[in-house]
Amino acid sequence: MSMVGYEKHGSVAVLTVDNPPVNAMSPGVPKGICEGVARANAEDDVNAIVLIGAGRGFIAGADIRYFSLPWPDGEEKFADIIAAFEASPKPVVAAIHGHALGGGLETAMACHYRVIVPSARVGQPEVNLGFPPGAGGTQRLPRLAGVKVALDMIVSGRPLKAPKAAEAGIVDKVIEGDLLEGAVAFAAEKGTQDGPHQRARDIEIKLEDRSVFDAMRENIKRKARGMRAPYACIECVEAAVDLPFDEGVAREREIFEVCVASDESRAMRHVFFAERAARKIPGIGKDVKPRTIAKAGVLGAGTMGGGIAMNFANAGIPVTLVEQSQENLDRGMGVIERNYANTLAKGRLSQDAMDACMARITPTVSMEDLGDADIIIEAVFELMAVKKEVFAKLDAVAKPDAILTSNTSYLDVNEIADSIPGRAGNVLGTHFFSPANVMRLLEVVRTDNVSDENLVTTMAIGQAMRKLPIVTGVCHGFIGNRMLEGYFGEASIMIEEGARPLHIDTVMYEYGMAMGPLAVMDLAGLDIGWSKRKDAGGGVATEGRGAFVSNRLCEMGRFGQKTRRGFYVYEEGSRRPVPDPEVDQLTLDAAAHYGLEHREFNDQEILERCLYPLINIGADILHEGHALRASDIDLVYINGYGFPTWRGGPMHWAGTVGLNAVYEKVCAYHETLGFDHWKPSPLLKKLAEEGKTFEDYDKEQ
Ligand code: CAA
Ligand code: NAI
Questions:
Q1: How far, in Å, is the centroid of ligand 1 from the Cα of 409?
Q2: What's the Rg (C-alpha) of the chain?
C-alpha cells in the first residue's frame, strides 16, 4: 500500500503522507510524493496540490534509522521530491500541523507555499543529531526567514511555533480552523493565478552585517566545545550568503555527508534512540497505565527536598512539604522562593507563573498533613535508621495506596521497603540529582516488590516533571554513583602517584567533560566522603588508597569550593581552580605513606584510568541486571554527570575505542594496580572476545 494517499478535493489534489508514528521520510514516502505530484500535473481538472501529514504531524524529517542503513537501490530520495516540487507548474502547498522538522521543513520549504495551524512547530533540529540540514534547509531558510533567524534556528536546533514562523516569513498563512479545508481553499485560489509560483530558491539573500557568523561562533564556544556540527551549520548558512543557490546546496551536501559519517553524529543518533528506548520497561506492556497523581508530598526541605517540591509545583501538582522544625521549613521555603525569583529575574518565568508555583507548595511541620498525598518522596538525612523511622511514620499516616519513594543516594531501598512490609509494593527509589529542580536525570530505583503500576506511575511523574527517568536496580549507588566511585577513586589514586590535579582535570575537560573529577569533588564537598570514611572507621577516617590527600585536606578544614580551598584554591567570588603547592606536598606525603614513587603521567594514561573503570563497572551493572540496557547507562552519565553528549556516553564511546582494546587495558591495570574497579567484568570480557559492542548487546536483549 502506498505511504502517500491521493485524493481530489475539487480542483486540488491532496497528497497525504501516512507513515506512523511521525511521518518520517522512510523508503516509500518520497516515491509516493513524486508519483502524486506527477499524477496531479497530468490531470487536467487539478490546478493545485496540497501536501499534508496524516496523524500527529506533517513530516518529522528523514527516517533517522537510515543514516546507519543502506537506502534501497533505485528508490526515490529527498532530492527527487524537491526537484518534482520545483518543476511543478501547478502550485504545491504544504499544510503543516504538529511538526515539520528537519527534512520535513525542507520539504515544506521546497513547496511554493506553506500554511500552518497555530499549534504546530517548524524547525531544523539536525544539529542535535550531529549534522547540519542536508536537503537545502540551510539555503532556503535564510532566504525565507532572513539570515539571523535561520542561523539561530539551524545552530540551536530549536523549533519555532507557528505564529513566530509566520512572523519570520517561513510560512505564508496561519489557518485557524480546519487545516485541510483551509489549505485546499488556499491552494485552489493560488491554482487560479498565473505562474510561475514563488520558489524559496529564487529569493535574494540580503545580509548587511557579516559579523553575525563570527558572533554566533563566539556565542556557542562553550556549549559546542568539542563538537563539529554547530560550526558546520554556520558554514552552510555562510555558503547560502556567499554562493549561488545550486552551489550553496552542493556545499551543504558535502558538509552534511562528512558530518553524518562522523563519530559525533553516530553518538548523537545513539542518544536520540537511547532516550526513546529508556521509556520502555521490558515485560511491562502498554496495558499498564500510570495512576493519576493529584497531590504529592515531600519530606525534608533541605538541598534536595526543596528542589523536588519545585518539580511537583512546576508540573502543576500541589505538594505538601514537611520539615522537622519551623526554622528548617522557613529556610527551605526561602531557598525555593529565591530560586523562582532568580528564574523570574532572568526572564524565564512570569510573576504569575511564579505565584502559581509558590501557591502549589504547602509548607508544614506536621506529617499528618501527608494523609491525602498520592505520592510521597522522602529526602531526609542519608542514614538507614532515620529513613526507616520516617517510613514507619509514613506507614501510619499515608493513604493505603500512596506511592512512597526514597531519594537516597546509596542506601538499600529494598531494606527500606521491607521495613514496612504491608506497603512493599508501593515503595521504590527516586534518585534526583542536585540541583533537583534543574538536573534532568532521575534514577527510578526498582525494588524487588514494587508493582508494575507504581513503577510506571513514578516514571510518568518523572516525565511530567520534564526529567529523563531511567530505571535502575537496587545496588550501592545505583547506576551513576556506583560507577562514579571508580572514576573519582582512580583520579584520587593517580595524584598519589604523581599526576597533578590540574593535569587530570585538563585531560578530562578536553575530552569533553563539563568539569574534571577533582574540580567536581571540590564542588560537591570533600567532607561528604570524609564523613563516610569516618563512619566506616568508627570515628577515624579510613585511609585506603585514594583517601590520603582528601583526609588531610578535610582535617585542615579544606572542604572544597565552599571553604575556597580543597584540591585547589579559589579566589573570593571565583570558581576558577588554582593549583596549590600545599596540595602538591600532600601528594608527595601520600606517596611516602603508601611507599610509591612520583612519576610523570601522559594524557592517554589519565584518560584510560578515568574512563575505563566507568566502562568496566558499567558492564558489571548491566551483567547483574541493575541497568536495563547499556544505552540507559549512557544517558545516566550524559544527563547526571556532565559526560559529553557527542561522545554518546561511556558505553557507546567504549565501542568506538573497541571493547577488545578496553578489555585488554582493564586487565593490564588490574594486574598492576589491583583495585576492585579494575577487576575485569565478565560481560566486558565476553563482548570483547566476540568482537561486539554494547549496542550489539542491547539489540540482542
Ligand atoms: N526517524 C525515525 N524514527 C523517528 C523519527 C525520525 N525522524 N522521529 C521519531 N521517530 C520515532 C521514535 O524513535 C519513536 O519510536 P518508538 O516509538 O519506537 O520509540 C517514535 O517515532 C515516536 O517518537 P517520539 O517518542 O519522539 O514522539 P514525540 O511525539 O514525543 O515527538 C517528534 C515527536 C517531535 C517528531 C520527535 O520524535 C522528534 O523530534 N523526532 C526527530 C525529528 C528530527 O530530528 N528530524 C530531523 C531528522 S534528520 C533530517 O531530516 C535530515 C535531512 O535534512 C535530510
Ligand atoms: P539536607 O541535609 O540538605 O536536607 C535534609 C533535610 O531533611 C533537613 O532539612 C532536615 O531538617 C530534614 N529532615 C530530617 N529528618 C526529618 C524528618 N523526620 N521529617 C522532616 N524533615 C526531616 O540533605 P540533602 O542533601 O537534601 O539530602 C537528602 C537526601 O537526598 C539524602 O538521602 C541524600 O543522600 C540524597 N541526595 C542528596 C544529593 C545532594 O547532592 N545533596 C543528591 C542526591 C540525593
A1: 33
A2: 28
